Amino acid sequence: MALPVQGRTAIVTGAGSGINFAFAELLVKNGCNVLIADLALRPEAQVLVEKHSKGPVRAVFQKTDVIDWQQLERMFEVAEREFGEIDIVCPGAGVYEPHWSNFWRPPGSAPSKDSPTGGRYALVDINITHPIRTSQLAIAHFLRHRDNGRPKHLVHISSIAGQTSALAAPIYVATKHAINGLVRSLGKLERLGIRVTAVAPGVIKTPLWTDHPEKIKMVDDSDVWVTPEEVGEVMLALVQQEQVSEVIGDRSGRGKQFKVSGGNIYEVSKTVRLVNQFNDEGPGDRPGNTASDHAAVEEESFQLLAQPGWGRPKL
């Protein structure tokens, strides 16, 4: 199932910034065409697209709202038109528990944008419905090109939140538990030449943390950040290699190695760990997994609950 990415094509949602940008950039550097699907590009992503607009290896931006299924279908159509066959799909777009779609700020309350009569949460649509639908579209494409025998890869973005609980972010945590269940359930697609895996990052220095005051307040100076590039390197290994090293960047084979196979979740802190489905030890306090001050954010949740009429929005 190993797939050297040179000469291949990938779709990465949410690659306008953060982990997904780091993965897309690594793919391009290793000779893989990439379609970046996002609402917008941060400056570093814009530079990547402009630099590789022409040539043997290209990066193409397709503006995409991942909660719109027609736009997801269009994303695949554009990738096929630009590059032909698609080999790697990463439904990576995701958000933390933002104020505009948040358990503690229910639909109809400020500043929620979820309608009390809408029947859905934007956070759920982005973090789990979009990966499910993108996976369906990817598998359909992969099966149409099954005859050539080239292995295919779906790489999902989970989180250590998929192994834990957090009062401050119940919906986010639920979506990441769901990603783990989805990936494990699809693991046997390896029989058809489709490998489905996920990385589960810890505290990553991306806009998902740094641009969100409600999240960044959990981190203090003693906490260790993991970089998007370190996570991207593990994602690349899940596609290109049959084993991934416990020590990020170590390809010597002398250290502890984990077999890369469908249905597996790989926790990424300052090291890599295979997350077992049953009787797992949990993420623990490994460097890069710990945000020290959850209490400050949890207290904010209790303050919201203390407001008169919580949970009873005006229709």
TrEMBL record:
Gene3D superfamilies given in the database record:
NAD(P)-binding Rossmann-like Domain
Q: Where is the signal peptide?
A: none
Which UniProt keywords are listed? Answer: NADP, Oxidoreductase
Q: How is this protein annotated for GO cellular component?
A: cytoplasm
Q: From the Swiss-Prot or TrEMBL record, what is one GO molecular function term?
A: oxidoreductase activity, acting on the CH-OH group of donors, NAD or NADP as acceptor
Q: Which family does it belong to?
A: Belongs to the short-chain dehydrogenases/reductases (SDR) family.
- Put simply, this protein is called Uncharacterized protein
